[in-house]
Amino acid sequence: MSCEDCLSRRKFLASAAGAAGLVVLAGCGDGVVSGVAPRITGGPGGGPGGGGGGPISIKVGDFPGLAFNGVLVAVDAGGTVAAVRTGANTFNAFSMYCTHQGCTTDIVQGSKFVCPCHGSEFSNSGNVLQGPATLKLTQFTTSYDSASDQLTIS
Predict the structure, then answer these.
(1) Per-domain boundaries in the chain
(2) What is the pTM for the complete model shown?
(3) Angle CA(136)–CA(141)–CA(142) in degrees, nearest 5?
(4) Rounded to whole angstroms, how far apart are CA atoms 101 and 116?
(5) Helices (H), ranges, 4-153
(6) 3-state helix, strand, coil in the chain (%, to 5)
(7) Rounded distance, CA 150 to CA 80, Å?
(8) Sign of CA dihedral 70, 76, 78, 81
(9) What is the C-alpha separation between 3 and 150, in angstroms, rounded?
(10) DSSP assignment letter at 132
(11) pLDDT tens track of the chain, all 154 residues?
(12) Which of 1, 84, 143, 146 is 20 to 30 A from 18, comparing alpha carbons?
C-alpha cells in the first residue's frame, strides 16, 4: 500500500517522543525554561529581579498576628513581604521570595516560610532550615512608631 501523505513509523515515533518531552518539561517547571530565575533585588514591593518598590507602612493593629512575638504575617497586598514581632517595639521583615529560584514562599502556621516549588524552608528569622536554598531570605529595614502603631518597612 502506497501513500504520499502517510506518516512513516520513524517520523511518528520521533514526533511522539518530542511531544512527550514537552509534556514532561511543562510538568516539572515553573514555566521558566531558561533554568534559573533572577535573584531578588530591591526593596519591598519589588519582584524577582525588579527594581523594588517604595517603603511599606502598615498599622500593626490591622494584623492580629503581629500582636504576638514570633508570628509571621504577610503584610503587603501582593503577599511578598512578611513581618514578625521580635519584642515590644521591634519587628523584622523579610522578602517572601525564595532565594533558590525566586518562587513566592508560603507562611506555614505562622512559624516558617515554605517554598512550594522545591521545598526549601526558612525560619521566622529568615534562616534556611532545609534546602535546596542556601541563602537566607532578604531582610528589610524596619522602624516602628508605637505612638501611631505604624511599622515602616524599607
Answers:
(1) 56-153
(2) 0.66
(3) 120
(4) 11
(5) 9-28
(6) 20, 30, 50
(7) 19
(8) negative
(9) 77
(10) S
(11) 566 666 566 665 666 555 555 444 444 444 433 333 333 334 555 544 334 567 889 999 999 999 999 999 999 878 889 999 999 999 999 998 999 988 889 888 888 889 999 989 999 899 999 889 999 999 999 999 999 999 999 9
(12) 1
Half-sphere exposure of 82 (CA within 13 A, CB side): 30
Could you tell me the fold of the domain covering 56-153?
A: Rieske Iron-sulfur Protein (2.102.10)
Type of residue at 28: C
Contact of 94 with 138, CB cutoff 8 Å: yes
Cα separation, 61 vs 15, in Å, equals 59
Amino acid at site 60: V
Cell of 154: 524599607
CA angle 41, 43, 47 (to 5 degrees): 55
- Cα–Cα distance, 48 to 76 (Å, whole number): 16
